[in-house]
Amino acid sequence: GKPFVITGGHGSGKKSLLSALLYGCIRQGMQVVLFDKRKEFDLKEKTVTVIDGLPEWNKLRKELSEKKEGSPVVLAVGNLADFANTIPYEENMLPMLIISGTNEELTLIGNPWYEWLLTVQCGICLGGNAGSQRILAFEDLGYEHMSRSKPPGYGYLKQGVGKPTRFLYLPVLPSKETEDNGKEENETKKERQEKE
């Protein structure tokens, strides 16, 4: 299957997008497998199979190889570095949705999973600053787009080798972290107003 990489800096909307894509897959009747070694995803769906290590992966691969028919399976990877350093590379993989943090890519150079993703060039870079990641090549973006940050949800979409970059805006639901920061800002403003 062809992978789709979601990359971007901290707070750019990667987890929100992956969660939305997973819910869409579930609603389409697909079987979703989530590799989540860090336990970062709290999906309420009971239909999602969560794995976090090689023994569970091997068991899943065996079950899938024995499966004759049924709903299509999609593999979601919560963190590329965790997955690539745990699961041995294999060709003819399941369709994959992958999150790659920009600060972890350098540790993956030479890893077969990473090298494979470089050849596919299919995914989205969220939050602007496309030059901070290395998996997706945005040859047609100028310096401003390669180096400037954008708000969460703004992204550059790459649909394959040699394909033009598309600009997207995806609505991002506020995370707990964003909500807490907003409350702190409002409380600080209120304190300042009371002092005046």
The amount of beta strand, in percent, is 15-25%
Number of DSSP helical runs:
6
Residue stretches low in confidence (pLDDT < 50, at least 5 long) are none
State the share of residues found in helices, binned by percent. 25-40%
Bulk shape: globular
Taken in chain order, the helices and strands follow as EHEEHEHEHEHEEH
Strand order, largest beta sheet: 3-2-4-5-1-6-7-8
The beta-strand count equals 8
Task: Report the sheet with the most strands, covering strand number, pairing sense and barrel closure.
Answer: 8 strands, mixed
By secondary-structure content and strand pairing, the structural class works out as: alpha/beta
Rounded mean pLDDT score:
84
The radius of gyration computed from the alpha-carbon positions, rounded to a whole number of angstroms, is 19 Å
Distance between the termini: 61 Å
Q: What can you tell me about this protein's structure?
A:
With 196 residues, this protein is an alpha/beta fold. The chain is 34% helix and 21% strand. The chain contains six helices and eight strands. Strands 3-2-4-5-1-6-7-8 form an eight-stranded mixed β-sheet. It is globular. The protein starts with a strand and ends with a helix. The model has no long low-confidence stretch (mean pLDDT 84).
